[in-house]
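For the sake of clarity, the format in which proteins appear in this thesis is described at this point. The record quoted next illustrates the convention:

___
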Amino acid sequence: MCDKLGANTKPTYPVILIAAVKGICRPTFTMMDKTEKPETKKYTALREGLTELIAIPTYLACGELAAHLSKKIKFKNVPEDVKKSLTKRAARNFMFIGVCVAALFVIPGLCSIAIKPIMDKLLPNNKPKSPAENLDPQLILHNPLLKKPDMSTFTGKRLVKPVYNTQIRPQLKVGGV
């Protein structure tokens, strides 16, 4: 029985099964994380679920499309029984290549196009903040590293002297000594 287990399995089926399990388990594990904020967990779980929801039909479509393209191959001077076996093998190989192309190019492209608008409609106020948005505005105003350089030394074509604050910049030693 075990020798027949994978004999007639199309390459898309295991990949779709993996995507379905990831679509269920990853959002579940994300929601179980006790260290994250509830808004972040909800956003991340929904995003992961949507990614796999896009991936499942994409794997199926790309695999079947590639298998359909394999029918264009013509085997000449081959007996009919061998031709049938070669056609079946070519279809499986093309299907595998189609699944790989879907994973490498099609799914990331579709996700970059589709997920942001969907997320904005489903969770309009729960976008995770970038690290710059979490900074205190007063800290930004009084940070000497973020101040604009002194433009009084600017001649119009080149900077006469570089503006460095050596008290803030760490002094590096060469050679580790």
Notes: The helical segments are 12-32, 38-70, 80-122, 137-141.
